[in-house]
């Protein structure tokens, strides 16, 4: 049994997080082909008997593109307005494609208070349990339309790790615009090497995350390492992989050497 098979073979609960850079094309429109491919793979997981939660970014990005803005707004009110517009467009797109596969989806919008306050946390956990029990695929995003800085997660990498912890997931998959964690920033260092497996998150591993950012996303490799810390300390393995690669999720659950695996702690 190889190391990937050890952590992935019996995974029953899977959280998939899709970044903005995977969902939006270079010309600023929704990448419908990529969304359809991700939806197809999530349906494949569920048809294999797995419970799946999708954490999706992109609401603010879709909203400001719909408004015809060329740069992402920095003002919190403008971001909230963009999120309110983009959230509906994004969910409608997902719902339409999932329904073509005979799947039911449910939208869950969260703020930090929903997972920090005990009663709210319990309610959120119960909602996920009820939905997954009925074969519904929850689609989660931060509730950017109402959240202010004090109650924001800050990025959906962190949110996805907390969701994985909440539902006691077995594996968290972060899909981004990079193949995984490199020994250094591959955009500035052509000799950077892809790290296939991280048994333990050390200072050296954290240093590898510096300098990688997306033009349309809200974070970079740093936020993914932070998410990995939350996941692995909760007994959940995590994989960072490139969302633009066809069948990437299927390859991951088939134990192929894709992306970077962070091994769960006992």
Write the layout of secondary structure elements.
Blueprint: H1 3-8, E1 13-18, H2 20-23, H3 32-47, E2 51-56, H4 59-66, H5 76-100, E3 105-110, H6 112-116, H7 118-133, E4 137-142, H8 156-166, E5 171-176, E6 197-198, H9 203-208, H10 221-233, E7 237-242, H11 248-253, E8 260-262
Parallel strand pairs: 1-2, 1-5, 2-4, 3-4, 5-7, 6-8
Antiparallel strand pairs: 7-8
Strand content: 15-25%
Q: Note the overall shape.
A: globular
Total DSSP helices: 11
CATH class wording: Alpha Beta
Question: What does it look like?
Answer:
The structure is a single chain. Strands 3-4-2-1-5-7-8-6 form an eight-stranded mixed sheet, sandwiched between helices. It has a single domain, classed as Acetylglutamate kinase-like (Carbamate kinase), CATH 3.40.1160. The chain contains eleven helices and eight strands. With 266 residues, the chain is an alpha/beta fold. It is globular. The protein is 44% helix and 15% strand.
Summarize it:
This protein is an alpha/beta fold and 266 residues long. The chain has helices spanning 3-8, 20-23, 32-47, 59-66, 76-100, 112-116, 118-133, 156-166, 203-208, 221-233, 248-253; strands at residues 13-18, 51-56, 105-110, 137-142, 171-176, 197-198, 237-242, 260-262.
What features would you highlight for this structure?
single chain; 266 residues; alpha/beta; Carbamate kinase; eight-stranded mixed sheet; 11 helices; 8 strands; globular
């Amino acid at each position: 049994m190889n190391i990937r098979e050890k952590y992935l073979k019996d995974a029953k609960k899977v959280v998939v997080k899709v970044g903005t850079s995977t969902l939006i094309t270079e010309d600023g429109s929704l990448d419908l082909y990529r969304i359809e491919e991700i939806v197809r793979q999530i349906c494949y997981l569920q048809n294999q008997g797995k419970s799946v939660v999708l954490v999706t970014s992109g609401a603010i990005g879709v909203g400001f593109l719909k408004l015809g803005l060329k740069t992402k707004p920095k003002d919190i009110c403008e971001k909230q307005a963009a999120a309110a517009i983009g959230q509906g467009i994004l969910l409608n797109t997902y719902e339409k494609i999932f329904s073509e596969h005979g799947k039911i989806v449910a939208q869950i919008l969260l703020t930090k208070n929903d997972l920090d306050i005990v009663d709210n946390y319990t309610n959120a956990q119960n909602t996920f349990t009820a939905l997954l029990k009925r074969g519904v695929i929850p689609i989660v995003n931060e509730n950017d339309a109402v959240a202010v800085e004090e109650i924001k997660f800050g990025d959906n990498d962190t949110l996805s790790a907390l969701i994985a912890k909440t539902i006691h997931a077995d594996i968290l998959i972060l899909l981004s615009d990079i193949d995984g964690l490199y020994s250094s920033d591959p955009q500035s260092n052509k000799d950077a090497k892809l790290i296939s497996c991280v048994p333990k998150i050390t200072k050296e591993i954290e240093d590898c995350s510096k300098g990688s950012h997306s033009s349309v996303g809200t974070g970079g490799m740093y936020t993914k390492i932070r998410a990995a810390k939350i996941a692995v300390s909760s007994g959940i393995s995590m994989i960072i992989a490139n969302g633009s690669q066809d069948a990437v999720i299927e390859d991951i659950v088939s134990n192929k050497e894709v992306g970077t695996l962070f091994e769960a702690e006992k």
